[in-house]
What we know:
Elements (H helix, E strand, L loop, with lengths): L5 E6 L19 E13 L5 E11 L3 E2 L2 E8 L2 E8 L3 E2 L5 E4 L7 E4 L1 E10 L6 E4 L16 E9 L2 E9 L4 E8 L6 E7 L3 E6 L8 E7 L20 E5 L6 E2 L16 E4 L4 E5 L2 E12 L6 E10 L6 E4 L9 H4 L12 E9 L2 E8 L3 E8 L4
Antiparallel strand pairs: 1-27, 2-3, 3-10, 4-5, 5-6, 7-8, 8-9, 10-11, 12-13, 13-14, 14-15, 16-17, 17-18, 18-19, 20-22, 21-22, 22-23, 23-24, 25-26, 26-27
Family: Belongs to the glycosyl hydrolase 130 family.
Protein name: Glycosidase
GO molecular function: hydrolase activity, acting on glycosyl bonds
Amino acid sequence: MAAFPVDRLVFTPPMVDLSRSPLAGHLAAETYVLGAFNPALTRLPNGNLLMLVRIAEALREPIFDDKVHAIRWDEGKYVLDGWPLEDADTADPRKFMLRDGGGWKIMALTSLSWLLPVEMSPDGLAVVTIHYDRAVAPTGSWQCYGLEDARISRVEGRYWMTTCSVSPERHSTTLYSSDDALDWIFEGIVLDHQNKDMLIFEGLIGGKFWAQTRPLGDLYFAYPPGSEWRAGPSINLASSPDCRHWQPHLEPGIRPHANTVATARMGGGTPPILTDIAGQRGWLTLWHGVEPRGLVGVYRTYWSLLDAENPARTIATSHDPLLEADPALTAPIDDLIYIRDVVFTTGIVEAGDHFIVASGEADLACRITHIPKAHF
């Protein structure tokens, strides 16, 4: 992987003031910032950049009174739920699995995530304003365990944001829209259960909105022996006349290759942007590949260039990672780390001869990288 001229952490958990959190004053238990990471990225009308940062606010001591606890939104307030310790597997600090799931995998979280707008300088390297008054937090039972991993696209002058909303009802994709990327209108659920990493293309194709999606499941059918593809999660496509009602595209999108385990699991990263790479014009998309290893696997960022008129066709790509986790970046906050080998890229803007790329580093902090266009 190449070294880039600008590559640093710009926002970390100690920079969050939890006295201004949506949860402040609701719980008779101490919370802390488990992570401030996976930021959506867009350019504001004033020229500054905006990161919409996922704040995972966690219980300092989730285990007490012989129970493990989770935070839940409940009709305008936040409450704690407790499960007997003997019923839960608490090996992962981010979550716990309930042993008696009736044949299903049942999970609860030790944190609740909400979204914090952080206004940055035009180069993405300095914090200008933290907009606590514009935080995006749960407003209904469909997201009672929080909102995760926002992505922002600007299409036809309007900002569109997708988020993953978490609840026992469903694990859905929710849509918001805005005129200014600061005041958001909830548009509803657009993709139902277990469809993550929905990325709206930053422009229309054939008069329609397009998006990448990533359905999940516990069962995948095998490709024929000798196929270049590996069965498993892949990045699919969908289109919409209004950005609210989506139809899956018949042709497959980006699929994992059989000759590597580095992308055995994959999903979308940045909303595709229309740009020129090495003399070819198309939709640049950065996505993550996960190599199975350890607790969560090794997350790396890859890139592909999709045909400008038919985004199901890849016209250029690289099997070498564009970004990998960098322990040197997190060394100053190493005492806060609970997961390693994870970079999760979630935003991109064009800036002259380079791209400004936003990522979550180690599920902990926000990383900004300036990647020269000549690198692709």
